[in-house]
Amino acid sequence: MRLLLIRHGHSDHAPFADRGLTTRGRRQVRELAEQLRRSEAFASCSQLLSSPLPRAMRSAELLLPMVAANAIAVDPALREMNDGLERQSTAPESFELFSERVEQTLLRLAAQHAGQTLIAVTHAGFIVASMLQLLGVSTTAKRARLDPANASVTEWSARDGRWELLRYNCC
Predict the structure, then answer these.
(1) What angle do CA 58, 108, 32 make, to 5 degrees?
(2) Is residue 86 scored above 60 in pLDDT?
(3) Is pLDDT at 8 greater than 90 in this prediction?
(4) What is the CATH number of the domain that holds 24?
(5) How far is Cα 101 from Cα 112, in angstroms, rounded to an integer?
(6) In the chain, how many domains are there?
(7) Which residues are bridge partners to 14 per DSSP?
(8) Residue 157: what are its φ and ψ, rounded to 5°?
């Protein structure tokens, strides 16, 4: 499986008010789609997934015409860490629980979509947690910071239980 994690475009959101993408965010996602339009990953994308949060959904909607998939599949597990500042149906979660959710989501996707290419529109926290989980970095390490840019691509390949990072924060 190839998995392209795309961070949503620049957004206008505050606690309890995710208003989706800004004009800048829509431009970022359109530029990303145009850059990737002729790539093999977009052409072979079997499924476009998205977090249910509006900023991710709007980004996925802009990407949909460029990929081989014909619909957006909403996957609640791709949402950002619930810190209690967004209206979500679950209680706030610790970073440890969030990291476990990210790892389980990645393992589920790899098992369900072996040999396929997926694009998942998600959030910075999900991408950072994927890096920490799949590279085996301690979640308590405080020496460096990962901060994926809006409308950036992080690409993983999973085969025979082994994960390989192909690119990170590619804009």
Answers:
(1) 30
(2) no
(3) yes
(4) 3.40.50.1240
(5) 16
(6) 1
(7) 17
(8) -125, 135
The domain in which residue 66 lies consists of 2-170
- Token pair of 60 as six digits: 């996925």
| Identity of the amino acid at 39 | S
Amino acid 38: pLDDT: 77
CA atoms within 13 A on the CB side of 26: 8
Grouping H, G, I as helix, E, B as strand and the rest as coil, residue 144 is coil
Tokens describing residue 86: 């967004």
Contact 114, 1 (CB under 8 A): yes
Q: How many residues does the chain have?
A: 171
High-pLDDT (> 90) share of the chain, %: 67
- How would you classify the pairing of strands 45-50 and 72-74? parallel
pLDDT one-digit tens code per residue, 136-157: 887 666 667 889 999 999 999 9
Mean pLDDT of 45-67: 94
**Residue 31 CA: distances (Å) to CA of 2, 35, 129:** 22, 6, 26
With b for 16 or more beta-carbon neighbours within 10 A and e for fewer, the 110-138 pattern comes to beebeeebbbbbbbbbbbbbbbbbbeeee
Average pLDDT over residues 21-40: 91
Residues forming a β-bridge with 6: 121, 153
